[in-house]
Automatic annotation (TrEMBL):
GO MF annotation, one: small ribosomal subunit rRNA binding
Entry-linked CDD domains: bS6_chloro_cyano
Name of protein: 30S ribosomal protein S6 alpha
Location within or outside the cell: Plastid, Chloroplast
Matching Pfam families: Ribosomal_S6 (PF01250)
Organism: Arachis hypogaea
Family membership noted in the UniProt record: Belongs to the bacterial ribosomal protein bS6 family.
Amino acid sequence: MASSISLSIPLCPPSNSLSTSLSPSHKPPFLQKRTQLSGFPLRAQTLDFSGSFFEGAGFGSEDDPITPGPGFTATEPKEEPQCPPGLRQYETMAVLRPDMSEDERLSLTQKYEELLVAGGAMYVEVFNRGVIPLAYSIRKKNRAGESNTYLDGIYLLFTYFTKPESITILEDTLLADDNVIRSSTFKIRKRKY
């Protein structure tokens, strides 16, 4: 499909303030050219976009199905569970030491899941975000008094429904754990539109 664009735009003469302050011999070249072209119509070039990126023949052919790259998985949309009466929805983001093994991380995740369930939490979900560089270095002392500086960490996101009273137990346990660099808990509020 060929597209044809044709415009006829007369160029305006320069404003009086510039033309009166500068004589024709002292005008800059772009103003001299403009005064020479004033009154002539401007014609646009005809553009042909057939077979271009804009018609779907972009980076690949139509025969190749678009598949997400490695690390991306197709997820089906699922319904969020309704908040049970007396409970509130919370999210806890915990940043773990980056040098933890997979077994240590799994046992720590299971420990905090069990702690949440013991405190009355429901619908506990854990999302492992992986190792992510920190925005700034974090220095943390462990129980032995050794100080470590961390530049990245393993991010875990816990989402759950629980009673407000059980949050303090979780936060105190996360704060005392040497494997946890930082943690934050947020109450999720649904917007009323």
